[in-house]
Amino acid sequence: LSWRISGQGARDAATVLCQLPSMKQEQLSIATRWARGADERESMANRLRELKLADSSGFSVESWEYLAGFFDAEGCIRIPVAYPGVLLQIGQKHPSVLLSVKRWIAKACPTYTPSFFSARNGRVHVLHVSKTAVSRFILERLIDSGLLQKRRAAEIALGVEDSNHLLSRQRLAGIVGNQGRYRRLDADGCGRARKIARLQKRLHKLRKAGGTTTEAQDLHAEIEHLQQQHASLTALATLSTLRADIRQMLRQGARRDGL
Fold first, then answer.
1. Rounded to whole angstroms, how far apart are CA atoms 233 and 238?
2. Known Gene3D superfamilies for this protein (predicted)?
């Protein structure tokens, strides 16, 4: 879904948006005074292209309301496979806004600091909240501050517990769409992942307690075997889902390429 506005309507909209905190203040300012002359328009267009590539280093998150809007557009809510928890994540091309969000969260939750890391050879920066209690606190504040698009997803995540773990994951998957459809685990896959996680935790405790080498080696070998089996069965389940989707599209009128 996208919308576009031009002409005087665009200038009027930019004038209103300029009054609100955002990372695009200079871009909006340019839009409010968009030139009529070709030379001036070209100069402004070049500046807009420069700003698109630049990091908004001077911006600072100052309210939960702003963060609610930002998270609505850019955030991700996840319920892990291995346990009924809540993970939050935001990815951005430039780091400054994420560092500002990190400072805001650290200020609101003094005992916890979100993790921040780069991926794809530094082309993407990610802010990650892995502690369920903090994720719940943040989601509650975002809902109170006007979270809209991700409100239902946040409510599902806030209600997850042992008794509805799998159901909550399924409900969340139904809301977020098909972007990760072929990466999501089915019920059997979730069960396998939880079993592996339990054994890994047991192995960690065993090693920490100085357990016997033989016992640790046997447990490690069992985990490796289960991981290989899990990868194979997950691939088969993904292939089955893909085939089912293709058959459904063919029934709905899609055509094979070249036919």
1. 9
2. Homing endonucleases
